[in-house]
Specification:
Immunoglobulin-like, alpha/beta, eight-stranded mixed beta sheet, 33% strand, Rossmann fold, 5 domains, 20% helix, five-stranded parallel beta sheet, 688 residues, 36 strands
Length: 688
Amino acid sequence: MSIEFAPFLPWTILAALAIAAALLSALSLWRGIRGAGLRTVALAALLMALANPLLMQEDREQLSTVVPIVVDRSQSQVMAGRQEQTDSALAGLQDRFARFPRIETRIVEVSDDPDTETPSTRLFSALASATSDVPPGRIGGAVFLTDGQIHDLPGVDQELAIDAPMHGLITGQPEEFDRRVQVVRAPRFGIVGEEQQMTLRVFDDGRRAGEVADVTVRMNGEEIATLQAAPGADTPFSFTVPRGGGNVMEFSVAEVPGEVTAVNNRAVHVIDGIRQNLRVLLVSGEPHAGERAWRNLLKSDASVDLVHFTILRPPEKQDGTPINELSLIAFPTRELFVEKIEDFDLIIFDRYTHRNVLPILYYDYIAQYVQNGGALLIAAGPEHAGDNSIAATPLSQILPAEPTGDVHNAGFYPRLSEDGQKHPVTRGLDGAGQEPPAWGRWFRSIDVAAPQGETVMLGDQGRPLLVLNREAEGRVAMLLSDHGWLWARGFEGGGPHVSLYRRIAHWLMKEPDLEEEALTARAIGRTLEATRQTIGEDPGPATITYPSGRSETVPLVEAGPGLYRFERRMEETGLFEVTNGEFSTLVHVGTVDAPEFKAMISTEETLAPYAEKTKGLVARVSDGENVSLPDILPVRGEVRVQDRNRMVIRLTDETVLRGINTIPLFAGFGGLSILLFAVAAMWWREGR
């Protein structure tokens, strides 16, 4: 309540009148005029009425105290029962704060940013944003409901988002521990067959380093090593890249009983294999038009080291030419097929005939080379159906088809078989979608009995034309015609001979993208894409196992012949496993070293310094079985003492002005009565 003035005349005039009244009153008193005192009172009352004093009374409303409750909904809160603890604790906090009408709670839910590949828990940023519209004096405190894994902690000595007690309610169980494995250093690329070095580390979070851990290493799904890793120390590992293209390395450490989660017990690293030099041995039985097509194709690839021999003069040919006059070199059979056969990635027999150039035992060496992981391509001509066919040698044990002895000479369009339309070697060849195919014709094919493996191309009257087969660890392909060169020459428009030959060669050398039965997955930002290749029927749905441990069944949609695919935007980030039947693959969505995955245990240590500085409290919401919350203690004024058992909330003294009531002191009957009383008293005194 206060008094203010709203004068009817300007203050300068009122001041002049007041001076005149003062002089008049002083003169009257000095000369002793009767009634001078009453005249002074009357003049003062008149001046007061002209000044119009007002009695002011403000109507104010007490403002509420704002308390933000910052709720951690990050990925680490999903596991180990923390989500249930969080929900229960949040309900309990709302119920307790509801008992204090002057306290207004603000629930701030903080989850992972769906657009980032590097998820982290940013609670302090969320707190600053949530309180940006609130005057600092109204904030009575803040409550963090979290597991303690916070990644935007400001410096303790820096200015904090609020100047009030900060309290931390920690989910999880006391004395948690967790074991995880992490790839510390590893190459992204490696030359196939060469040794590579990498480093991994096992962590034991939440306890002292335990005993040595066994780490299982898998390459492309096959176990290749078991390592002994001391927790906390770097563990080196040497390996060789087995194939070109993407190679998925998986490191898994056995789950420790009682640890928080096993989802971070695995780590993956993808290394792209690079073939430095593909060594190809091309052996042509005799000069023919198709020989140049093979040679030109292989020589045009800078990554191919080609060794090419054409048998121009077999040993049995005796024409009397002196040896010193021959410009031909002897065929180094022992060097190629005994000493250095393992150095070749691919051996091609192009219209080769058994003519005693190779000892019969050497064919057995070639068969062993294939069974041990090598690759063999037979480009057959008429000689393959004759008496000197290599199918009559020990090589027959690995050939997928046996010739019948018939050679068909008739024009035909090479066509894809039902399997060929799905097989990655022949799927999508330019011109294959028409009938007849938009290719030139061939005019010769070699008849074979029912072949093994997959027949992906058909010739005259549906006879096998291209047969692909796996033999033990290696692979064999048979092209049962020598007229592929017609496509290279552009006969009747030609055909996709470059794509076909190249795909055959790369399939033989186990290129991952050309596997006919495969499940692959990749991450594009937060989108998971999985592709299933098959030459069989619909493979059925796929199962996604999330980093949090939950599983989801997802239908695979046909994207083309032999291709089934799904795409799904992921809310979680981390290591996902996709399975379909007997096939499985791992893929990491998001950044591998994202802060959200570096530690999973709950901790009180991160918030303790801030609670100490602001006179707050840090406590666990669970004692191992039940959820319990500390009491709330509202206080007025500055918080000077930290309460170890209660959450102190500083009540605000701020108010909001709703209105002002004014009462004129010299207005109305009251003011008139005072003036009349003063004048009447003056007359009464003078009349005596």
